[in-house]
Specification:
The protein has 379 residues and is an alpha/beta fold. 44% of the residues lie in helices and 21% in strands. The strands form three sheets. A seven-stranded mixed sheet has the order 8-7-9-10-11-14-15, with helices on both faces. A hairpin with a 2-residue loop joins strand 2 and strand 3 (66-76). The radius of gyration is 23 Å and the shape is elongated. 51% of the residues are buried. This is Branched-chain amino acid ABC transporter substrate-binding protein.
Length: 379
Amino acid sequence: MQAKLNVIAIATLMAAGSVYAQDMVVKIGHVGPTSGAIAHLGKDNENGARMAIDELNAKGVMIGGKKAKFELLAEDDAGDPKQGTAAAQKLVDSKVNGVVGHLNSGTSIPASKVYSDAGIPQISPSATNPKFTRQGYKTTFRVVADDVHLGGTLGRYAVDQLKGKVIAVIDDRTAYGQGVADEFEKGVKGKGGAIAKREFTNDKATDFTAILTNIKAVKPDVVFFGGMDAVAGPMIRQMKQLGINAKFMGGDGICSSELPKLAAGAMADGQVVCAEAGGVEGEQKAGMEKFRTDFKKKFNADVQVYAPYVYDATNVLVAAMVKAGSADPAKYLPALAATSGYKGVTGTISFDEKGDVKNGALTLYTYKGGNRDQIAVVR
């Protein structure tokens, strides 16, 4: 009898073992600044990844005949390049299967070498500096348009639509801020416009009196800022205090739900024009609206900027694993590079030979009554 019970016990354990053998753990890394001045943007990104992971686990995704259990390994880089490479190395050491991030170009670019050396695919949901995908790495991808498109479009818009005659430019000297400001300047000049004044600050600054006083002297009708919303908000406040009544422009770094709060009531309706690197039109709008509603319900927070792009990037990584029948980076990387026509909440995603999203859209916004108001989607 005892022997029979032992046989049953062993058989039960073997059956249980075979069930567990069917499960595979897939680790997805995410890195963003979840501390510091733009922690609200970093948390927004992390929540986008969390939402995708939770949904994938609920679906019971199969990879190569095994049920995948997805785990999110979230790291904070505080928007700092050195901390970014340390976070990247930590994820590599944890043997992640793929990475979504980082948020900033200044952290994504140095981290991309760490991932490339380890052969781990990385998709940034928000790094727009052109250099990111032009280093020759096969593991580097992004799901948003780059600064050439973003900055250039805003520069042309400043001249054509805002009729800017006296245009001033400020940047925060980061890879993103300086890069997008340079492309904005090229866009202005390409339309026959000129830059009357170019100043710079840094991404931790709070007092802009000196540079804004210099800018006030040229009587600008448009001021462009290359940087993030945490700096843009106080800058808009100080422009008002100094009596600078110019239009204020910026890229996706300032184009957040939080900007009106950061400007503390100093923004006039229609004063700010910004662009988000991405955009949906027509039937696709319903999918984006559903995402925003679901996100609010899940996290009790509005989407800031990039959460939908993180969500799509996470799903694109997994779709490539499913297609390749493997979560091994070396095996699914070719399928990821060949991604074409993936329908996400941010639009249709296909990668070119550099890892850039093909035919990337931009959405131009202004703010009215403290809320973002869409102007147009441009490609």
